[in-house]
# Entry
Amino acid sequence: MLVSLPHQKRLDDFLHRLRQAGKQELGYPTAFDLDYSVLAEFLTVNLNNCGDPFMPMTYQVNSHEFEREAVAFFAELTRAPKEQWWGYVTNGSTEGNLYGLYLARELHPTGIVYFSQDSHYSVSKNLHFLNMRHIMIRSQENGEIDYDDLRETIRIRRDAPPIVFANIGTTMKEARDDVGRIRSILDELAIEQRYIHSDAALCGGYAAYLDPRPAWDFGDGADSISISGHKFFATPIPCGIVLAKRAHVERIGHSVAYIGSMDTTITGSRNGLTPLMLWYAISALGHAGMKRRLAQSLAIAAYAEEQFKRAGIAAWRNPAALTVIFPQPAGAVCNKWQLATANGISHVVCMPHVTRQQVDELLQDILASAVEVS
# Structure
């Protein structure tokens, strides 16, 4: 299938613009360093992963076998209970978070969701979709949830099962809520009916490789976990992984004759290409490759923080974070480098593709704009 020369030129120009924009994208947690072009031939196949990836289905043009392997890798990474977990590849972490909250609602219909000020903006949207009662908890200065406020708020409403939405890498500050500490609070209050969802969209791809390892996964008390694939794993199509305890999932599944499978996911038809991409990245990199990319990213983040401070800019980051926060620079600088900005602060997310040269050029632009203003 071919398009006319003017249309082809438009496509070529668009691709060029995208590649140029990618060279100056520092504000969002999307990596660009992995090449998935080896999978291009699969664009000629209508891959559709409808239904439960662990169940047979009548439509056989799917990548369920690769999806199962990819999800199993993340189950190991998150210390999911052996043979007692379930998961699938989502359209992104918003869907994964929706799934976790949906399971929590079905398990605890009268529950109250507790989430912090720094939670992703989609959380409120998901809670509206699900019509769940909720209370926002204060955040600490570094973006982490205020555990004292959480404890007291749950204590005075202990007649309703608490559903705690934990952030493992907040949007602006990459703060990580301590799932183990949240579990301890619920233990102290002698609350048996509970649910903890771990929103690990940002950090879930590498949290298991950090030393010391943060408290964020099933081993620490999570009931479900959402992770992004297009962030640390650089998939060119947005996607994610959601994992949950099998017992919770079994409460919502039902058989669908049309597809000859179980309906246990949020959507019907699902992308069959993204599981293949995740499987490819996992197979090509392995644990050693993941650790290498993480070490590279942490080194660049440390470099950026140090260079900004040397230049007199009040930059900082949370422990072992890839996100460097600093005062909001001039609008032209934010636009050029596509810096995410909120409440007077901006940040750089040092994903594996970010280089020292890019950091240096950004710093030069910030200093030059400051001189122009003065």
About this structure: The domain at 16-34+287-366 is CATH 3.90.1150.10 (Aspartate Aminotransferase, domain 1). Residues 255-260 have pLDDT under 50 and may be disordered. The chain has two domains: 16-34+287-366, 40-282. The radius of gyration is 22 Å.
